[in-house]
Amino acid sequence: MLVPVFEQAICVFDFDEYDSFEGKHETYSTLETLFSLPDVINEGNVPDAKGGRALSTAHLYKTHPIPQLLNFKTNPLGDWILRRIFESAILLGFQNTRDIKKLKYHRTWANRMEYNCDAIAHRHANNDWTIPHLVAIYYTDVPDESADLVFINDKDNSIMRGDHCHEYPAEKQYIVKSKTGRLVCHDARFLHGTTVHKSHLPRTCLVIEVGFPPLNK
Fold first, then answer.
1. Which residue, of 22, 59, 60, 124, has the greatest Cβ tally within 10 A?
2. Are 66 and 108 a contacting pair, CB within 8 Å?
3. Which domain of life is it from (predicted)?
């Protein structure tokens, strides 16, 4: 579903079979294995994560790519995510200038946010970058009092990292409720972050950056 946000738009979808899809046990077991890796446990918070602890496989995206580890080609969840990314590329207008059928993964990783952590406002790309173009966030575990996703109305695409989301005026914030099974796709240049995670249970999501080559004129 296309959702207008300020002068832009995002896409929000909910996976009806998030709790019953074939291969769920293997999918979640793989994620737990990732978060148990010494290279993940011993790594500090990524620069965007402040406050409480946050685990991430972002620095392992080359050796531990999520689509391959979770078998996106055969996994019903992966298939659904890819179809929604393709749909989002159309809804967000990328097909007008890009060959969206030639999707290319950029970075893919898993994030786990713990109590009192939040993600400061950040971008995945600016106007001068050739990739990524679109970012997909899929929530695998969202307990009560979890951090929500916040989009910030800020047109200065040169700013890659901003402030905590609560430091922006309320009228410049657009909050998207995080929930298990939800997928949010957005332009990689859209400034976004999170509210503070207030649950003592972790909130887990997948982050998938993709790009598309220019259309052949």
1. 124
2. yes
3. Bacteria
Give 100's contacts (C-beta < 8 A, 6+ positions apart). Answer: 86, 89, 90, 94, 212
Q: Where are the beta strands (DSSP E) in 114-201?
A: 117-119, 134-141, 149-152, 173-176, 182-187, 192-194
Which value, to the nearest 10 degrees, does the dihedral of the CA atoms of residues 187, 188, 191, 197 take?
Answer: 100
- Supply the DSSP string of 153-164, one letter for each residue: ----TT-SB---
Give 203's Cβ-side CA count (13 Å radius). Answer: 32
Cα–Cα distance measured from residue 84 to residue 87, given in angstroms and rounded to the nearest whole number? 5
Geometric angle at alpha carbon 129, from 207 and 78, rounded to 5°: 25
DSSP string, 63-108: TS-HHHHTTTTT-HHHHHHHHHHHHHHHHTTGGGTB-GGG-EEEEE
Predicted confidence (pLDDT) per residue in 45-103, tens digit: 999 999 999 999 999 999 999 999 999 999 999 999 999 999 999 999 999 999 999 99
CA gap 96, 89 in Å, rounded = 10
Query: For the chain, what's the residue count?
Result: 217
110 Rama sector, left if φ>0, alpha if ψ -120 to 50, beta otherwise: beta
The DSSP element (H or E) to which 51 belongs, if any, is strand 49-51
Distances (CA, A) of 64 to 49, 68, 93, 110, 157: 21, 8, 30, 10, 29
| Residue 16, both tokens | 């009806």
